[in-house]
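REQUEST ID: PR-0412
SUBMITTED BY: lab tech R.K.
PRIORITY: routine
TASK: structure prediction, single protein chain
INPUT:
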Amino acid sequence: MPPSPRPQSVEEFYGPYGPYQVSELVLQKIWLAGVFDQSRLRDSAGRVVEVVHPGSWNRLEGPDFKDAVLRIDGVEVRGDVEVHFSRSDWRAHGHDFDPAYNSVVLHVLYHKASGSDARTASGVDLPSVSLLPLLWYSLEEYAGEDSLVESTGVDLRPETETLLGLDLSARKKRLVELALRRWRMKVHYARQRIERLGWEGACHQGALEVMGFARNRVPMLMIAERYGLDDFAAGRVTVEELLEAGGDRWRFNGCRPANHPRLRLQQYLEVGEHSPLWPERLLGFIRDSDGLTLDPVDSDWGTASIRQDLGIAVMRKELLAQVLAKRIGGAKADTLVCDALLPLLSAQSGRDAFALWFHWNAGNGPESCVEALRILQVLEPRTVPMSNGWLQGILGARIGSSSDRAGLAGSQADA
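STATUS: complete
OUTPUT:
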C-alpha cells in the first residue's frame, strides 16, 4: 500500500471577510510555478539565487522538492528544497534531527527570516529565501483566487448539476451572489495593488497581467516589474526587449495569431504611445448614477433593459476610444475592462461599480462556462443577454468548489 501524503501546515490570516487559513501547499505551488519576482531573489546572506529547476514536487515524506538545481552567486548547487511559512517551522517539524533532510540546500520561507538559519542533522546551516517581498499578490489572492489555476479546460458538470437542483429564479440569484463575491474580492485585491504600487503602477501591472491571460500572466508580470508605464509611453522599449524580459516563461504553443503575446505587447505599446495618461483618463469613467447601486436580488437583474439604462454600450465605446486609444478591442478589451480596469476604478474612487461590471460585455471565457450557462438556461434571447456577470458567476461556482484544492480553507467570504 503506497504511503499517504503527509499533512500540511496551515497559517491563519485575516482578509476582508474575516479569518482564513492557507495551507503550505499554496507556498509549494508558488515555488513550483515560479509565480513571484525571481529577478530579486536573494538568500539570507544577500547572495543572488537563480532557480534553474525548482525540483520535483514531493507530496510524500521527506523534503518538499527533490533534486532542485540552483545557482547561488553563479555557483551551481544541486539538492532538495524545503518550504515553510516561518524559519521556526524547521525545528518544529523535527527536520533538524531527521537525516532525510540532510540533502536540503535551500529553505524557502514565506515570512522574512530572522536569527540563525535552519541546520540539518549533519550540521549544515541552510541558507533561506523569503517569498513575501517578491509576491505579485497577497497570499490570500494566491490561495483563494484563480491566480494559480488556469480558467481553461474546466469541467463544470458537478457545479452545473448542483445549480440545476434549484428553480430558475433561485439559480439566477445564486449566480449573481457568486458574481458579487468575485467582484468584492477583485476590488479588495485591486485596493491592495493600489496601496502597494500607486494608481498608475497598479493600472500598468493589472493591464499587462490581463493581457497575458491565463497562459502568460507570469512573463507579463515580469515585464511590469522591469518596465514602467513611462517606458511604454516614451517609446523606450521594443516588443523584442519585452519578450526577452519574459525569458523562458512564455507559453507560445497553442496561441492563435490574434492572442499571441507579441501582438498583445504591440497593442499595449500603442496604447502607451497614443494614450500615455490612460490611468488618469480612466478615473473619469465612473459617473453619478443610481444604477450603480442596483439591488443584486432584483428580479430583473441581468436584463437587456438594465444594460440600456446603465448606458453600457455608450460607455464601452468611449472607454475603448479615450482610454485604450482603439488599440485593443473586442473580447480582449472586455476582459481587460472587467478583470482589471473596473475593479481598480472602483477601489480608487470608492464607488461601487458592480452593476457596470456585471452587465458589461463578457470577455474571453472558457467554452465550458458558456456551455454550463446554456444548460442552466439563465440566458434568454434579446431579454437576458450574455454578460460578464453570468460568466463570473459560473466561474465563482468553479472557484468556490475548488478552493480547498487550491489551498484555501476556513474562509468566511460568504458571511
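NOTES: The two ends are 42 Å apart (CA to CA).
REVIEWED BY: pending
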